[in-house]
């Protein structure tokens, strides 16, 4: 073990015997009492020394035997200790990839704050490399989500969409202006490869060689160019994901409202059909209007404010990464919305419908506590 006090948490002495790690209430930890000599030993926990070397340093500082181990135990219990040498086998592959880890060091620092156990941050970063995410839609939201996921270390990011790139699809962090006129799927594939740490090119199978077996989908992000399909998702394509147990997250911009969620955990949280049935219960005219909106051919580009689309893409990517890292984000069983011009994010819980065949109505697994209360929640972070 090569102990390291997590460098992502800012350190400040509250007084001569009390040190605080972290500035924000969500992650700050206070350690006390800490005398001056022990504080000097803390300064040596930078990941460059093993336990035997640190034991010698502790003796040189005049600390009694066992003080080092007791301090390490306190730091680990407080979630402040990391191990510079820890990590599963996949970590070695990440470290060997040219330039990849340097690109991800800021992400690694953030993960170390969230995941308290030593080696937990780099372990999750390495695990992302084996994951496969499919993004359905290559407009301002979908393309940006795909680029963000690829840049965050997700190993396989596929983008499905038809047609050719239009000028209004272009966005900073998404499809570039030079892609106008290209096939959307081709342009998105190039964007994903260019965004990846280390500049990994999209994987292709040489001619004459059998294709590698693709890993199962970790998640599908439904980010249609027409945000109506995210706000009022079509249950027909979602039936396959529910049947195969594939988690999926909806995100998009409809008119002047951004939407993130629900994240559907098949059999555990409300699905697209639950959403449709619940809305029909509340508004009997909804199915009639929805049929008209879905069947009408739109001759003009759908409204999609660039700032709002960027915010939606960022939030959707963050919720996706939280899920891939083993957490249940606030979109689990809930939909987050923000409308121009005030952009007040609000959450609406979506309960499984008792008449839906997805089976989620009889279960509560996978629903985040903040998403199962009544009324609306306020985003706090």
Please describe what this structure looks like.
The protein has 381 residues and is α+β, with helices and mostly antiparallel strands. Helices cover 36% and strands 16% of the residues. The protein has 14 helices and 13 strands. The strands form 3 sheets. Strands 7-6-8-9-10-11-12-13 form an 8-stranded mixed β-sheet. A 3-stranded antiparallel β-sheet has the order 2-3-4, with no helix packed on it. The radius of gyration is 24 Å and the shape is elongated. The C terminus is likely disordered.
Summarize, please.
The protein is an alpha+beta fold and 381 residues long. It has two domains: 3-85, Alpha-Beta Complex (Outer Surface Protein A, domain 3), CATH 3.90.930; 130-378, Rossmann fold, CATH 3.40.50.720.
């Amino acid at each position: 073990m090569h102990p390291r006090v997590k460098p992502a948490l800012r350190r400040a002495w509250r007084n001569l015997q009390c040190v605080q790690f972290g500035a924000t209430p969500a992650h700050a930890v206070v350690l006390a009492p800490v005398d001056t000599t022990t504080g000097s030993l803390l300064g040596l926990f930078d990941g460059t020394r093993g336990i035997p070397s640190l034991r010698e340093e502790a003796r040189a500082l005049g600390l009694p035997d066992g003080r080092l181990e007791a301090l390490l135990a306190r730091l680990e219990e407080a979630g402040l200790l990391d191990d510079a040498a820890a990590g599963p086998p996949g970590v070695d592959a990440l470290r060997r990839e040219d330039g990849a880890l340097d690109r991800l060091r800021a992400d690694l620092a953030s993960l170390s704050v969230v995941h308290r156990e030593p080696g937990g941050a780099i372990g999750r970063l390495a695990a992302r490399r084996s994951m496969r995410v499919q993004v359905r839609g290559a407009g301002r939201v979908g393309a940006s989500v795909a680029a963000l996921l690829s840049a965050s270390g997700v190993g396989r990011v596929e983008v499905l969409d038809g047609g050719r790139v239009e000028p209004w699809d272009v966005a900073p962090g998404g499809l570039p202006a030079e892609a106008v006129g290209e096939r959307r799927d081709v342009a998105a594939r190039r964007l994903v490869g260019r965004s990846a740490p280390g500049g990994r090119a999209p994987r292709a199978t040489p001619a004459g060689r059998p294709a590698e077996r693709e890993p199962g989908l970790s998640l599908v992000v439904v980010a249609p160019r027409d945000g109506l399909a995210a706000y009022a998702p079509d249950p027909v394509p979602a039936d396959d994901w529910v049947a195969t147990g594939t988690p999926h997250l909806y995100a998009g911009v409809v008119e002047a409202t951004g939407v993130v969620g629900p994240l559907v955990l098949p059999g555990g949280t409300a699905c697209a059909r639950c959403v449709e049935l619940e809305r029909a219960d509340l508004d009997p005219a909804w199915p009639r209007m929805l049929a008209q909106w879905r069947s009408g051919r739109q001759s003009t580009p759908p409204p999609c404010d660039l700032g709002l689309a960027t915010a939606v893409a960022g939030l959707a990517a963050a919720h996706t990464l939280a899920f891939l890292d083993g957490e249940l984000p606030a979109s689990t069983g809930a939909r987050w919305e923000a409308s121009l011009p005030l952009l007040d994010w609000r959450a609406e819980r979506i309960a499984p419908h008792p008449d839906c065949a997805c089976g989620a109505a009889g279960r509560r697994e996978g629903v985040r506590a903040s998403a199962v209360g009544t009324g609306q929640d306020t985003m706090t972070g």
